[in-house]
Amino acid sequence: MPDLPERLAEGSRTFVRAYRHEDAAEFTARVRESRELHSPWLFPPTDAEGYAAYAGRFMEDPTREGCLVCAREDGGIAGFVNINNIVYGAFRSGAIGYGAFAHAAGRGLMTEGLGLVVRHAFGPLGLHRLEANVRPTNTASLALVRRAGFRLEGYSPDFLHIDGAWRDHERWAITAEMVERDPSHPARTVPG
């Protein structure tokens, strides 16, 4: 029997789990298939060497938590949600980055997967706040954070260096209290 990866959280259509070295072939194939979808927003690794460095950061660095969003129907990787810059103490916060793969885009898998990661972050990880910084022209990404219950908190000019230039971003966030106060909050109602 194959060694099944530990599921960090599970919903009705997806589950999230950590990156593994043996995911390189599937992950990079999905990245190559998704170039048009990701451009000009994301530049995930397209080869095994790049994947090893990329995934290694999430496997080895305690200030990062990398989550693969997988479809329950076949276990295939539908996308990813990474929590970066995790700080504990009085802050208990992290910044998320995410991406869907083309074969899974528009099917609601990332909406459920992001909700599962939020639940994981506010539960087992013990975080209080997650922030997502999204380019104002990335309508699909903005729609995802809205559906996941994040609130718009501000605008950051020249925030991140992406695709050769400093890019403006909208700052979206969610806190544990937002989820706790609202019984119908998307991160709270993820089937599981």
Jot down its keywords.
192 residues, alpha+beta, Aminopeptidase, 8-stranded mixed sheet, 6 helices, 8 strands
Task: Give a structural overview.
This protein has 192 residues and is α+β, with helices and mostly antiparallel strands. The chain has one domain (7-181): Gcn5-related N-acetyltransferase (GNAT) (Aminopeptidase, 3-Layer(aba) Sandwich), CATH 3.40.630.30. It contains six helices and eight strands. The protein has helices at 24-33, 35-38, 48-60, 109-122, 139-147, 176-181, and strands spanning 7-10, 14-18, 65-71, 77-87, 93-100, 129-134, 151-162, 165-175. The chain has an eight-stranded mixed sheet, sandwiched between helices. Strand 4 (77-87) and strand 5 (93-100) form a beta hairpin. The longest helix has 14 residues, at 109-122. The protein is globular. The mean pLDDT is 92.
CATH topology: Aminopeptidase
Strand content: 25-35%
Structural class: alpha+beta
The CATH superfamily is known as Gcn5-related N-acetyltransferase (GNAT)
Provide the residue-averaged pLDDT.
92
Low-confidence stretches: none
CATH class: Alpha Beta
End-to-end separation? 25 Å
**Range of helix content:** 25-40%
Using the 3D structure, state the CATH architecture: 3-Layer(aba) Sandwich
The DSSP helix count reads 6
> What's the number of extended β-strand segments?
8
How many domains, as an integer? 1
What characterizes the major β-sheet?
Answer: 8 strands, mixed
- The ordered H/E elements are EEHHHEEEHEHEEH
Q: Please give the radius of gyration in angstroms.
A: 16 Å
Order the strands across the largest sheet as they lie in space: 1-2-3-4-5-6-8-7
Assign an overall shape.
globular
